[in-house]
C-alpha cells in the first residue's frame, strides 16, 4: 500500500469533493483584489495558506479520487485544482478522468509538460493516452522511447479500441516450467515489485509460447522442491489480441479472473489483460449505452461549453423534432373527431405515454440480452412472442382499468371499451417495435442502443394517437 493510500481518510467521495470545493471558495475569496492597501499583505498570506491547505488535501487523495473531483468541477476551478497536483501524479490522473475532461486538462498544458508526464507511463498507458495528445507531441514521444517500448505502443495502437489488443498490459512475470518453485520464489524476491494485479505467473517455453500459468496461491502452498510443471495450470483462459474486448470482460466476470494471458495466432505470449481494465471497460460500456439511448453521441463534460454541448445533442433532437411533427400531423387528421368529443384530447396522451414506457422496457431488455450475447436467430421469434404476450396481458389489465375510469368520468361505456382496445393495441405495437428497432440497428452495424429511446417514443406516440383516434372515429362518432 502506498503512502498516499495509507494516509487516505475513510470518507465518501462526496465528502472529499465538498472539502475541496470549500477550500476553493476560500481561495477565491482571498484571491479577490483588496480595496484597502493596509490589508493587502494579510490577504496574500491567507492566499498562500489556502493554496497550501488545498495542495496538502490533494496530496492525501488517490488519483482516482482526484479524477472524480476534477470531473465534478467547473472549468476554471478544475484548472486551479489541476495546477496544484504534483507533476509525478498527473499521468495517473489523466488515465482516470473521462475523455472529455482529459481534453480540457491537456489543452491547459504545454508540450514539455505533456512529454514529462508521458515519460513516466508504461507502454499500455501511453497507448491509452496517445489519441488525446497533439500529433507532434506523440511523434516526439515515440522518438524518445526505446525500441521495445516503441514497438509495444505501436502494437497497442494498431488495434481498434474495442479489441483486446488495445487494452492489454505488457508488464508481466514469465517463468519456465523446468525450474523448481524455490527458484521462482528467489527470482520474485529479486524483483523491485510485482506488476499490479499479479495473481498468476505465465509459464512459457524458450520461444515465448504459452504453456500454462502458475497461480501465486499454488506457488505459496506447495512444496518448494516441486517443479513448476507439476503445479501449473495447463488450460488457462487466454485471449487473442483481435478478440472483442467486451466479450473478454464477460469472461472475466464469468470465470472470476484477475488477469489472463493474451497470445498471438502462434500461441506466443504477447501481453495480458487485468481486472482493472475490464471493470473500466464495463463501466464505460454501461455509460455509453445510457447516453446512446438518450440520443447523445459521445461522453459529454458536464461543464462543457454551450456550443460543444449543442454539437453533441443536435442530431437526435432534430430527429425528435421530425417525429414530433409527424405525431402532430396524425392528430391533425382527426381534428374533427376531437372537436366533437373533447374527451379524446384528454385521454390520448395516456395511450401514447403508456406505450412509450412499455416500449422502453422492452428495448432495455433486448439491448441487455444483445450485450450479454444471449440472443441468436433461433431465439428471436420466441422472444418476440413472449414480449407480445406480456404486452397483450398488460394491455387488457391496465387498459381495462383506464377504461373503467373513462366510463366513470365521461359516463360512456363505449369510450371505455375504445380506451381499452387502443391501449392494448399500442402496447402490442410497442413490444413489436421494441424488439425490431435494436435488432435492425445491429443488423446495419450500429449500436443497438443508439437513439432507441427516441425512436420507440416516436413510434408509440404516432401509433398510439392514430390507433386511439381512429377507433374513436369509427365507433364513437
UniProtKB/TrEMBL annotation:
Domain of life the protein comes from: Bacteria
Major subcellular location class: membrane
Keyword Signal set for record: no
Record InterPro entries: CBS_dom, CBS_dom_sf, Mg_transptr_MgtE_intracell_dom, MgtE_N_sf, MgtE_transporter, SLC41_membr_dom, SLC41_membr_dom_sf
Keyword Transmembrane (UniProt): yes
CBS domain segment(s): 232-288
Transmembrane spans: 388-410, 416-441, 453-476
SUPFAM superfamilies associated with the record: CBS-domain pair (SSF54631), MgtE membrane domain-like (SSF161093), MgtE N-terminal domain-like (SSF158791)
Name of one Pfam family that matches: MgtE
SMART domains the record matches: CBS, MgtE_N
Keyword terms of this UniProt record: CBS domain, Cell membrane, Magnesium, Membrane, Metal-binding, Transmembrane, Transmembrane helix, Transport
Subcellular location, record wording: Cell membrane; Membrane
Topology relative to the membrane: Multi-pass membrane protein
Entry function: Acts as a magnesium transporter.
Quaternary structure, from the entry: Homodimer.
Family: Belongs to the SLC41A transporter family.
Entry protein name: Magnesium transporter MgtE
Species: Pseudomonas asuensis
